[in-house]
Design goal:
4 domains; six-stranded antiparallel β-sheet; 18 helices; about 45% helix; elongated
């Protein structure tokens, strides 16, 4: 700190102070109040600081050292002080003390001692008995606090609470005027609406402009049927309808029965239960509803809710919604009556939910790129990045990032271990946001050499339910830039990105399954068109290998007499001998499946004693019984060199194929039996015709022997004829 001599105090300074103080009466915001205080303190020859009083202590607004004409070096932004200490220390308008004798928070004393002061003057801005702000002046050795200098500051402090109250009153008045204007505008717009849908959209627009972006619903009550319908429900960026449901125990039903507004802003689920109501679906964190009443009778309700935030709504919101409900109830009812006939006709049709998907949700890279760029541009951040967890949930891997640093990290495959000493690693492990407004003071901060200008960092989880799938990371070149407001907005952005990522993954999975099912359909069709069992089975294993990406495939058929399994078709095995095994029922994995008639999916065959090692590289196996009309016809067996290669989806898919193959095998066997029978009957017919055309017994026997030999593929056929004894005749 500069050690130049202090500025001399003159009566002219008093005049300047009073001139500055007069400006306080013209202040219209807290910022303008702080500016007046700042300008006043700069005139004084004393090191000075102004703190606003918070629930936890003091928060620095401004400090000034006249010797350096800069802020006091080493001054702390936040000073934690208990309410008891606050009341004890700052209950007087002016209190002058020696630093060695002062009974104040040690942080305050150390700040002014380091500034070269030996005494301080504490001036409190008191509203009734509560301090709203504290001005602290420091005097060095040889200086003293002149009354003509401190008196204007005391006057300034006395004026601060009144100015704040005036500002609050003005704001309340302005808010009320905005509400009245909104209600007036709504009435005018409603008058121009000619159908209920237009009216609902007008109401939704006014709700968003006055209360903000919240879930919004219109409920309509039908007294005749005792039902409630929700023709307009805005939630998660989409508008939909809920079909009529009976008047029951929900919160809307309470509004209808009581005809009174209801606001729940904390512990909403428990409070709802205490009222005898319960949420349908996900419970809201904040809920506000007002009934629509015409002539003392309920006709519906207006509901706003926030699914994520507690204490979202205020008494001002309640008052506005109550006033709005009184204005629109009649319009809704009248319009509803006009649309009765049309609505009855439309009730014959199935009303589909109106759902608007995020346009880029299936192109996740585009969405993430837009999101991080938006974070940088609109929030004036230095850097933004999205990390996604790998399959093992061990690392958060960078997926998208801004700037050249982001491009370099993407090319390098930058990743951070879950739970590592980094802000991203912490959030990935703990599933909660982490805000560091001063990275130099945080132990979790990871100093990335590619981003040397980072002074503040915030990370928010990308989560679906309670599961973390990634992290949104934003960084600033300025400290203390993150506020509750922008963090809440960024969390909403993170939630949207999480949904988009999951939707993209689900879409990719669905496409993969569709492709697999198409291939399996092709396999089944090809097998069904085969003329023999062997041809069908060979066609099946070849097609299935393409579907599974080169795994070992085998189809084994049951020999009921021998009680074993014969490999009838196979592909991918290292040698022919391994594909010609005969496996008794109950032996090996396939034998076990044949005996127990249940599929087996084995993640690691080396840990299963049943496995018969044919190929030492095999690590996982999936065996499916081929069952037709309660008979095990064989086994479909697939093997892979990868551990846990087969999923539940694979088992389901191959189970479907196994059912089709079993039917094909059974039908092929019947067809072969039929063909054999036909061939035998044809041969018998030919033998009979040849016999009929000859009268020689010897020739008849010769023809019969030849034809039997052909039918049985025998090398020699002998017919023995025992002629009767002619002497006995």
């Amino acid at each position: 700190m500069s050690q130049t001599a202090p500025i001399s105090a003159t009566p002219e300074i008093t005049i300047k102070l009073h001139e500055k103080n007069y400006e306080l009466f013209r202040a219209r915001s807290e910022r303008e109040i702080h500016a007046v205080i700042q300008n006043s303190l700069k005139i004084l020859p004393y090191p000075s600081a102004y703190y606003s009083v918070t629930e936890t202590g003091l928060e620095l607004v401004f400090s000034h050292d006249p010797r350096s004409k800069k802020a006091i070096q080493g001054v702390k932004r936040i000073i934690e002080i208990s309410p008891t200490e606050m009341a004890r220390c700052f209950s007087d308008n002016l209190k002058i003390s020696s630093l060695d004798e002062a009974d104040y928070n040690p942080t305050i004393i150390s700040i002014f001692k380091e500034a070269g002061c030996d005494s301080i003057a504490v001036i409190s801005a008191i509203e009734e008995v509560i301090s709203v702000g504290v001005i602290i002046l420091g005097a060095s050795e040889g200086q003293k606090f002149e009354k003509y200098l401190t008196a204007p500051i005391v006057s300034l402090a006395e004026t601060i609470p009144h100015t704040l109250e005036n500002i609050k009153a003005v704001r309340a008045t302005q808010q009320r005027l905005r509400e009245l204007e909104a209600i007036s505008d709504t009435s005018q717009l409603i008058s121009a609406s000619n159908n209920l849908q237009d009216l609902y959209e007008v109401l939704h627009k006014q709700i968003k402009e006055t209360i903000g972006e919240v879930s919004f619903a219109i409920g309509l009550y039908d007294a005749e049927s005792q039902t409630i319908s929700v023709p307009y429900l805005y939630d998660t960026d989409s508008v939909r309808q809920i079909e009529p449901f009976p008047l029951g125990e929900g919160l809307i039903s309470i509004l209808i029965r009581t005809r009174q507004p209801l606001m729940l802003v904390d512990d909403t689920e428990r409070r709802a239960r205490a009222l005898g109501a319960k949420f349908v679906g996900k419970s809201a964190k904040s809920w506000l509803g007002c009934p629509l009443v015409i002539g003392g009778e309920p006709v519906g309700a207006i509901i706003v809710q926030d699914l994520e935030k507690e204490n979202r709504f205020t008494q001002d919101d309640l008052r506005f919604l109550t006033s709005l409900s009184a204005q629109v109830g009649g319009a809704i009812n009248n319009t509803r009556l006009l649309e009765n006939a049309r609505r009855r006709a439309l009730q014959l049709q199935t009303v589909a939910e109106i759902s608007r998907e995020v346009s880029s949700s299936l192109i996740v890279d585009n969405l993430l790129r837009q999101a991080v760029q938006l974070a940088v541009e609109r929030f004036n951040f230095y850097h933004a990045a999205v990390f996604l967890l790998d399959d093992a949930k061990e690392f958060a891997v960078i997926r998208e990032a801004t700037g050249e640093a982001g491009a370099q990290m993407k090319r390098a495959g930058h990743k951070l271990a879950v739970g590592s000493k980094s802000i991203v690693g912490f959030v990935a492990q703990n599933n909660e946001p982490l805000v560091v407004n001063d990275t130099s003071k945080d132990p979790n901060y990871y100093a990335n050499p590619l981003m040397p200008e980072t002074k503040a960092e915030a990370a928010l989880p990308l989560r679906v339910g309670n599961q973390v799938i990634g992290v949104l990371d934003v960084q600033s070149a300025q400290p203390y830039v993150f506020t509750d407001e922008n963090i809440k907005i960024m969390q909403i952005l993170a939630d949207q990105m999480a949904v988009a990522v999951v939707n993209s993954e689900l879409f990719a999975e669905a496409q993969e399954r569709l492709s697999q099912h198409r291939l399996l359909h092709h396999v089944t069709t090809a097998a069904a068109s085969s003329t023999t069992i062997d041809e069908a089975l060979n066609s099946a294993v070849q097609g299935l290998q393409v579907t599974l990406g080169g795994d070992q495939i085998a189809i084994l058929l049951s020999d009921r007499e021998q009680k074993n399994l014969d490999v009838r078709a196979s592909i991918g095995y290292p040698n022919e001998e391994s594909a010609k095994l005969k496996i008794p029922f109950g032996v090996g994995v396939t034998g076990w499946v044949a005996l127990h008639r249940q599929p087996q999916r084995i993640a690691d065959v080396t840990k299963d004693s049943r496995y018969i090692s044919v190929n030492s590289k095999v690590r996982s196996e999936l065996a499916i019984p081929l069952i037709y009309r309660n008979e095990v016809l064989g086994i479909l067996n697939v093997e892979s060199p990868r551990v846990a290669a087969y999923s539940e989806n694979d088992e389901e898919m191959l189970g479907t194929l196994a059912g089709s193959l079993a039917a094909i095998i059974a039908h092929s066997r019947l067809l072969e039996q039929f063909r054999t029978q036909v061939e035998r009957e044809r041969m018998l017919y030919e033998i009979i015709n040849k016999i009929r055309r000859t009268s020689s017994a010897e020739k008849i026997l010769s023809i019969t022997a030849d034809e039997i030999g052909k039918a049985l593929t025998a090398k020699r056929v002998a017919i023995q004829v025992n002629l009767p004894d002619t002497e006995s005749l």
